[in-house]
Amino acid sequence: MTRFAGALAAFTAVVGFLLGLIVMGSPPRTAGGSPGLRNADTPPVTVASAAGPEIPTNGAPVDFSAVASHVNAAVVNVDAAARGDGRTRSGPRWRRDMADDPSAPREGSGSGFLIDPHGYLLTNFHVVDGADRVTVTLVDGRSFRADVVGVDPAIDVALLRIPGVEGLPTVVLGDSGTLRAGQWVCAIGNPLGYVHSVTVGVVSYLGRKLFDQSLDAYIQTDAAISLGNSGGPLIDAQGRVVGITTAVSAQAANIGFAVPIGQVLPVLDQLRERGRVSRGFIGVGLTTLTPAFRRALGVSVDSGALVQDVTTDTPAERSGLRSYDVIVSVDNVAVRTDEELIRHIAGRTPGTTTTLGVVRDGVRQKVVVKLTERPLPESTQRRVAPGSDARQASTRDQGPLGLIVRDLDRATAMRQSLPDTLQGVVVVDVDPAGPARLARLRPGHLILEINRRPVISAGAFQQALAALKPGEVAVLLVFDQLLDQRILVAIATDGGS
């Protein structure tokens, strides 16, 4: 093989690997904003840090059965539903009820983990992106409707909250900065619908770049993770969460990626208080100053962030930064690489002034830059407006169960070949993102009873609904003509579990 052919083959392999990356989970997307963002009157997030309780090892081999039993109760299933909007969707993450109908409702699922006894939990942004309804199911089977408190598309993180609950089990958050390649970790989640699956592997690489070359610092692991693991915890041998499982390579079963928890902790307050994250931005393309660059450019310093490009109409251009400048400090704090510089700038508040130490043509000087806000990727800008609540999109009152019924008439009974002995109400409409839809009710079902109370007319059905409290679970006796039998359906009404 020639040198050129070898280089071409290597390049092709890298491109193929990156193209093979897919984000896990099956998230619903709609043209509206993110679901039910809440950023007011919410209590502070009280997370258990690495200083909290952990699983002692006493020098013994790692026992991930103890880790799993310690953490599993705090791992949840996250189900998201979106109403169809007539638009064509792309990507493999959709599960559609009618594959040929762009207006059909979308459903997706992922994982998450509780970080606060008051109901706060973390998952991936892409799991809840564009959802009209988010439902969280605990390990004990209880289900709750959850609010999306805040989202950060830049690192694919979302903070949710189950309102009105207390005393929930929580994880302990660790320090991803102490991880080393080869260290044992495990993942818990709901891959392919197999809830609370535990897989074990090692940290394969730290700081992997996948999507955003400036912010990405993914943990790569060979712990088996699959579609549906999105948003679940990556856990170290002491039972501490060190990452959020986020992506997997489509080309290999043992290459998965997690967002380091060290990237999430600094933005938790912004997610809770503002519903979004603001990061400082100067507008330069950077690379690390390598020995090769240093020799070729005759640079006098040993390390720093080398400016490759300056974007038009940005703080960098306005401050006079140029290509070939080497940035060696931020507010007198030394920076050795481009990643260090990006972390420093991103961690600062937009609108503040920062002084950069710059080496230009062998001369050290200071450049004052007034930061602006780091722009979101264009593909996510329209979907993260705080305060939007797509749950109000329904044009008809479908009630606490998210359905509309009518009286059973003789024509319907004959058309559906219903037994003469049946009395009930016919489901004629189901909210695609409502409780009834999640319980698999569909138009044409015949509801016979609610909580063992017969409903022989639409009026009786409404009276039975009026007796339900918000959040109460209703048990419906339903006749399914496709199965030709009665079935029991439990539906959590809007407002709680």
Task: Walk me through this protein's architecture.
With 497 residues, this protein is α+β, with helices and mostly antiparallel strands. The chain has three domains: 3-274, Thrombin, subunit H, CATH 2.40.10; 280-373, Pdz3 Domain, CATH 2.30.42.10; 394-492, Pdz3 Domain. The protein contains twelve helices and 30 strands. Strands 2, 3, 4, 5, 6, 7, 8 and 9 form an eight-stranded antiparallel beta sheet that branches. It has a six-stranded antiparallel beta barrel with strand order 11-12-13-16-15-14. The longest helix has 17 residues, at 3-19. It starts with a helix and ends in a 5-residue tail after the last strand. Mean pLDDT is 79; it is low at 1-5, 10-15, 29-40, 86-104 and 381-395.
